[in-house]
Write a structure and sequence with these properties.
The structure is a single chain. The chain contains eleven helices and eight strands. The chain is of the alpha/beta class and 281 residues long. Strand 5, helix 3 and strand 6 form a beta-alpha-beta unit. Helix 2 packs across helix 3 and helix 4 packs antiparallel against helix 7. The longest helix has 14 residues. The relative contact order is 0.15.
């Protein structure tokens, strides 16, 4: 398997397909680069070089005991960019991966980046605090930790069967294949990194990262996202970006890149080509 060593004993698995301007994909918790299959195939077939990695502790990368937090995730991504000598890269992040992209661009700058795309992403901050009263209470994330620690296999069936893909909504068409794929990806990762990552995606404040980003950033978010509610994420993030564009998808779920790849892929391609995608901001 293609890997890079980001630290002694820590190897990051990655895919690197096609040729052209690079698009680097960062996946959500607790998944892997396989979650981007529909995007990797589409963009590689449209003249882009596509790269996707398994975050440390996830998928086929090393199951680390330490370093399962956003600064290290961003440093690992930087190591991948340098190892592959990527330039003028477009960084796409979903959910936790959106936080990884924001921290990477804020921490390491945009010398090798052309644009960012945050899809159903966690920035600026998910946790409810005095400064962020619209956020989700700690009890929500304690519940995720409890499910991960005590009954991970079952919990990793409950999330995709219910709110992740919106399959709990009346009239929803349930896709069992997506549910099984989610479970399989999740169970490939390590329980300790998964447990630690809950704190990383829920408590990290990306406000200053967003303010620092000086390349165009597209925010894509479903207004029926039950995992990362839009009111506490994209609707706030757009106000912090220097060159932000927001596209809201009515009725779309958190995993919309998998449930609606035809729409998401077409809009992202059009935006990259400078075309109007009917953005709301």
């Amino acid at each position: 398997m293609p890997t890079i060593a980001v630290q002694p004993g820590v190897d990051i698995f990655y895919k690197d397909w096609g040729s052209g301007q690079p698009i680097v994909f960062s996946h959500g918790w607790p998944l892997s680069s396989d979650d981007w299959d529909a995007q990797l195939m589409f963009f590689a077939n449209h003249g882009y070089r596509v790269i996707a990695h398994d975050r440390r502790g996830h998928g086929r990368s090393t199951q680390t005991w330490d370093g399962n937090e956003m600064d290290t995730y961003a440093d690992d991504l930087r190591a991948l960019v340098l190892a592959l000598d990527l330039r003028d890269a477009i960084h796409v992040g979903h959910s936790t991966g959106g936080g990884e992209v924001a921290r990477y661009l804020g921490r390491h700058g945009t010398d090798r980046a052309a644009a960012g795309v945050l899809l159903g992403a966690v920035p600026p901050i998910m946790l409810k605090t005095d400064a962020n009263p619209e956020g989700l209470p700690m009890e929500v994330f304690d519940g995720i930790r409890d499910g991960t620690l005590n009954d991970r296999s079952n919990f990793f069936k409950v999330l995709p069967t219910g709110p992740f893909y919106g399959f709990n909504r009346p009239g929803a068409t349930v896709n069992q294949g997506l549910i099984d794929r989610w479970w399989l990806q999740g169970m490939m990762g390590g329980i300790k990194p998964h447990y630690d990552c809950v704190k990383a995606f829920s408590e990290t404040d990306f406000t200053e990262d967003l303010r620092k980003i000086d390349v165009p950033v597209l925010l894509m978010h479903g207004d029926d996202d039950q995992i990362v509610p839009i009111a506490d994420s994209a609707l706030k993030a757009i106000k912090l970006l220097q060159k932000g564009t927001l596209k809201v998808y009515p009725g779309f779920d958190h995993g919309m890149a998998a449930t609606h790849p035809d729409v998401i892929n077409a809009d992202l391609l059009a935006w990259l080509q400078g075309k109007d995608i009917g953005a709301t901001a």
